[in-house]
Amino acid sequence: MLKSETGDTPINYLIQLRLEKAKEILDTHPEQSIQQISVSVGYDDAYHFSKLFKKHYGISPLYYRTSKD
Question: What was the pLDDT predicted at 35?
Fold first, then answer.
């Protein structure tokens, strides 16, 4: 049912929501570590989170944050 509404699988939809929230945190709370952000959006493994972020946005979360300065 979710796929017919969003055009995406439930897991991909959840990943997208988590990564959008992570991007928001990176923008508003630059003092938080990548590890803290990954845990706050539901990932225990910061490496896995970073790989997904890079796959989705084309840059790592650390580079995304530093490119904002």
Answer: 97
CB 39 within 8 A of CB 18: no
Please, which residues have CB within 8 angstroms of residue 19's CB and are 6 or more apart in sequence? 41, 52, 53, 56, 57
User: Nearest-CA neighbor of 41 among 59, 55, 61?
Assistant: 61
Contact 18, 56 (CB under 8 A): no
Question: What's the pTM?
Answer: 0.85
d(CA 40, CA 34): 10
Q: Are 21 and 52 in contact (CB under 8 A)?
A: no
